């Protein structure tokens, strides 16, 4: 480990790092103002969570909902810009925190490069355009790493408590923050200088426990809803494992896209060649999420972003082992995505491949919701659907429409947040406007459509159709 003088968080890196991060973040916010895509289903759902304050939600902890409510209330607007704006800012903050960690463990030059490389990583570029739980987790996860190292090196009780609190904040954003626990345990084994002592370890646990307590209590009082959803995502827990080497290969290939090809090579090289305590500590802090999700990819589905927690400590490690030329090359490659992604959102729906917009998943949602809401208003009917995608955008786009919106009452365990909390009330009578992708049969043959919905973007060719039916039909429908 460097000496106290060598690992000083000064050394002239801070001002240029702030300048780099500020320029990148500022340009991203400007580009976001011209973004032509609709809120994705997850983004609309996170916004809606914020309209219904709670200590937990169906599939995730509550911090992202709280954040979006605070930002949109302060801005006085629920426009997509304000829903997405925190992404670029939070990643900028994360880059500076990781730079401070690099200054602690290495030196000022590694710190400056850490900030520059981090804010241009492909997953950061995407996370600065679309708000997600990964993005909200990022600064808290990075803060937990920084204050964990500070507590070990300096032995301050305050640093230990803040480390635990930051870990709790990360957990309240996304449960993947739990990887901090095995990472920290391994780090104190390979780097004795980071051992915080029993008192500080207890303070870390206390800080963590205090922050996450509201969500733990909420889960216990709501039938462990998010635990059940996590088991659904894991898949093989419900249906049994089916080992596939191909799944592992696909997942690892995706990581070279998520983290950038040269930075990923540097990370793997750094893990394999970690010789000093500082490098070994970063390696074991980075490894748990990557290893766990790699195994999951062999047993069932694993999305590319599930191992994002690897890349907070992993960025510092990768930059540290890179040479000067390698850093410049990595920065250049990463900048390709950093420029291309926001440019695509500005030019959308261009370009198109075989007649379909490249970003079709992020287009057509608002237009479809407006058509559905117009039909509902014309007949004075509430809208009902089983589709999470449909409901998410209806609640967002129709937030000032006055049209009642419901999920179909679930049969068994609710499949999503809307079915859990906004299902059609029991005993509801009268006509409803049902939005479905297949013909509805109430026992007397297929019900004729109540109109035509023109699907574009994500809804092109999906056959989304409106039906006016009696509410009682929903219980008897085939």
Short description:
The protein is mostly helical and 478 residues long. It is built from 21 helices and six strands. The chain has two domains: 14-36 and 79-347, no CATH class; 364-476, no CATH class.
Write down the secondary-structure element order.
HHHHHHHHHHHHHHHHHEEHEHEHEEH
Low-confidence stretches: 3-10
Strand content: under 5%
Approximate helicity band:
55-70%
- What summary fits the major beta sheet? 4 strands, mixed
Q: End-to-end span in angstroms?
A: 67 Å
Determine the mean pLDDT: 94
Q: What is the domain total for the residues?
A: 2
Oligomeric category:
single chain
Task: Note the main attributes of this structure.
478 residues, mainly alpha, 2 domains, four-stranded mixed beta sheet, two-stranded antiparallel ribbon, 6 strands, globular, disordered N terminus
Task: Explain what this protein looks like in three dimensions.
- There is one protein chain.
- The protein contains 21 helices and 6 strands.
- It is mainly α.
- Helix 19 links the parallel strand 3 and strand 4.
- It has a 4-stranded mixed β-sheet, covered by helices on one side. A two-stranded antiparallel sheet has the order 1-2.
- The longest helix has 26 residues.
Write the layout of secondary structure elements.
Elements: H1 14-33, H2 41-50, H3 63-75, H4 80-105, H5 108-120, H6 122-127, H7 133-154, H8 157-173, H9 180-190, H10 197-221, H11 225-234, H12 236-239, H13 245-258, H14 261-272, H15 277-299, H16 310-321, H17 324-347, E1 352-353, E2 356-357, H18 365-379, E3 383-385, H19 388-397, E4 405-407, H20 417-421, E5 431-436, E6 465-470, H21 473-476
Parallel strand pairs: 3-4, 3-5
Antiparallel strand pairs: 1-2, 5-6
């Amino acid at each position: 480990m460097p000496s106290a003088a060598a690992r000083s968080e000064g050394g002239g890196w801070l001002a240029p790092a702030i300048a780099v991060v500020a320029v990148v973040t500022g340009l991203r916010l400007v580009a976001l103002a011209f973004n032509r895509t609709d809120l994705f289903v997850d983004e609309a759902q996170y916004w809606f969570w914020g309209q219904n304050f709670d200590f937990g939600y169906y599939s995730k902890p509550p911090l992202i909902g709280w954040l979006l409510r605070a930002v949109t209330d302060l801005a006085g607007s629920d426009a997509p810009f304000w829903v997405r704006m925190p992404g670029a800012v939070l990643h900028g903050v994360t880059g500076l925190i990781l730079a401070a960690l690099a200054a602690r463990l290495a030196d000022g030059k590694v710190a400056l490069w850490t900030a520059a490389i981090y804010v241009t990583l492909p997953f950061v570029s995407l996370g600065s355009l679309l708000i997600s739980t990964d993005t909200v987790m990022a600064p808290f996860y990075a803060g937990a790493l920084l204050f964990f190292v500070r507590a070990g090196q300096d032995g301050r009780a305050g640093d230990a408590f803040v480390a635990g609190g930051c870990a709790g904040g990360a957990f309240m954003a996304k449960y993947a923050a739990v990887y901090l626990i095995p990472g920290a345990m391994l780090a104190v084994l390979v780097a004795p200088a980071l051992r915080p002592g029993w008192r500080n370890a207890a303070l870390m646990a206390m800080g963590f426990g205090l922050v996450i307590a509201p969500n733990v209590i909420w889960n216990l009082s709501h039938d462990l809803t998010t635990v059940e959803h996590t088991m659904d995502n894991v898949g093989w827990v419900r249906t049994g494992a089916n080992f596939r080497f191909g799944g592992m290969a696909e997942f690892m290939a995706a990581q070279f896209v998520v983290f950038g090809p040269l930075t990923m090579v540097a990370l793997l090289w750094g893990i394999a060649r970690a010789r000093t305590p500082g490098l070994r500590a970063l390696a074991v802090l980075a490894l748990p999420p990557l290893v766990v999700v790699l195994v999951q990819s062999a047993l069932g589905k694993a999305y590319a972003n599930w191992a994002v927690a690897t890349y907070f400590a992993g960025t510092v490690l990768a930059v540290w082992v890179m040479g000067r030329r390698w850093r410049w090359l990595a920065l250049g490659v990463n900048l390709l995505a950093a420029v291309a992604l926001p440019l695509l959102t500005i030019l959308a729906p261009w370009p198109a491949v075989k007649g379909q917009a490249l970003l079709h998943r992020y287009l057509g949602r608002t237009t479809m919701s407006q058509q559905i809401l117009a039909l509902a208003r014309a007949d004075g009917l509430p809208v009902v659907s089983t589709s999470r995608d449909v409901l998410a955008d209806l609640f967002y786009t129709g937030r000032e429409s006055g049209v009642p919106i419901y999920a179909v009452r679930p049969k068994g365990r609710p499949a999503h947040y809307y079915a859990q909390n906004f299902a059609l009330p029991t005993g509801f009578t009268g006509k409803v406007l049902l939005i479905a992708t297949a013909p509805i049969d109430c026992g007397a043959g297929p019900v004729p459509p109540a109109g035509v919905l023109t699907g574009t973007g994500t809804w092109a060719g999906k056959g989304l159709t409106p039906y006016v039916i009696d509410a009682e039909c929903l219980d008897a429908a085939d």
